[in-house]
Design goal:
There is one protein chain. By secondary structure, the protein is of the alpha/beta class. The chain folds into 2 domains: 29-145 and 283-309, 3-Layer(aba) Sandwich (Rossmann fold), CATH 3.40.50; 147-281, Rossmann fold. The protein is 42% helix and 18% strand. A 6-stranded parallel β-sheet has the order 2-1-3-4-5-11, sandwiched between helices. The chain has a 6-stranded mixed β-sheet with strand order 7-6-8-9-10-12, with helices on both faces. Strand 9, helix 10 and strand 10 (277-280) form a beta-alpha-beta unit. The structure holds beta-D-fucofuranose.
Length: 326
């Protein structure tokens, strides 16, 4: 008699023999027919900062290098438009979709509709809610940074520089986005063990320079006792620096600053002593994303989460990094 377990093993064995992954959900993902050149859809979230522009350029350069067609859309900061953009890529029958989901939950329908339409989809740089859709099951893979680790590294550098004592204003990224959620968590987890490190105000500046300036200005007026800033990206940091200087304060002295990304402006601010630390978040996804597509088309099994290796920049190594900054 064959029991259920043996049946399952037989079935999985059969799948493996037929060249499928032995992870059953992975085998259900849309396949990518092997081609010399693919038609790739890239659904960008917005183009209002140097990080986004560097990411888009990296995708376009890589497509051009390989002679692949790139169908590019810009959601202009709207998750609803981004869902519509992915739908239009499905209608245009692209071979594969690269999606940088603006927020964790609203982009779930886009992920599911691509799967249903038989088009493989990879998440680029931002993630979706893992309780609603999973890598290797609902989409092929996520490629991006470890945002929790970035938050921890920012906290570690800041804590060391202020001897474990600071009153911190936090500028969060876009509400509901994975980098904002995870950078907040990583930083909070680290300072939990350092009772002198206190977040006295925390609010979103939507990853944007001008919003960062406005929000920082308001928070700092309400909390003039602040001694440090933790900002989830360099653009908001640059906005906050402008607000500090307008208030007659000296960034790097009156307020110690930890930031994330690695833009040219923030790297210059490291050299000028205005910013203490910039944890890298590399936007140049083109090569990794296109390599992953090629591998998937060749029938290779991708890891559900491909994590970029990021560096930590301070005054010491900023000059060396500057030529790569964007
Ligand atoms: O840090 C920020 C951008 O999703 C990791 O989004 C990315 C973030 C990046 O707008 O500058």
């Amino acid at each position: 008699m064959i029991d259920r377990r043996t049946m399952l093993q037989v079935t999985l064995g059969g799948l493996a023999a037929a060249g499928f992954s032995i992870r059953p959900a992975y085998a259900d993902l849309p396949k990518l027919e092997k081609k010399d050149k693919y038609k790739v859809g890239f659904a960008q979230t917005e183009s209002n900062n140097p990080w986004r522009l560097a990411q888009t350029k990296s995708m376009k350069d890589e497509a051009e290098k390989r002679g692949w067609q790139l169908v590019y859309t810009d959601a202009a900061g709207s998750a609803a438009k981004q869902v519509a953009d992915v739908r239009s890529m499905i209608a245009q029958k692209v071979d594969v979709i690269l999606l940088a989901p603006r927020e964790e939950k609203p982009l779930i329908p886009a992920v599911m509709e691509a799967k249903k339409a038989g088009i493989p989809l990879l998440l680029i740089d931002r993630n979706v809610d893992q309780s609603l859709a999973k890598g290797g099951e609902d989409y092929v893979a996520f490629i991006g940074s470890d945002f929790v680790k970035e938050g921890m590294q920012a906290a570690e550098a800041l804590t060391a520089a202020v001897d474990g004592k600071a009153k911190i204003i936090e500028l969060q990224g876009t509400v509901g986005s994975s980098p904002a959620n995870d950078r907040m968590k990583g930083f909070a987890d680290y300072i939990k063990d350092h009772p002198g490190m206190e977040i006295i105000a925390s609010q979103s500046g939507d990853f944007a320079r001008d919003k960062g300036r406005q929000v920082f200005e308001t928070l700092y007026q309400a909390h003039p006792e602040a001694t440090a800033l933790y900002s989830h990206n360099d653009e908001m940091t640059m906005g906050a620096i402008a607000a500090m200087e307008a208030a007659g304060k000296v960034p790097g002295k009156d307020l110690i600053i930890a930031s994330i990304d690695g833009t040219k402006d923030a790297t210059q601010a490291l050299l000028d002593g205005k910013v203490l630390v910039v944890v890298e978040c590399n936007p140049k996804f083109g090569p990794a994303a296109f390599d992953a597509i090629e591998k998937y088309g060749n029938g290779e099994t991708l890891e559900p989460r491909l994590v970029n290796v990021d560096r930590v920049f301070t005054k010491e190594n900023a000059a060396e990094y500057m030529p790569e900054a964007y």
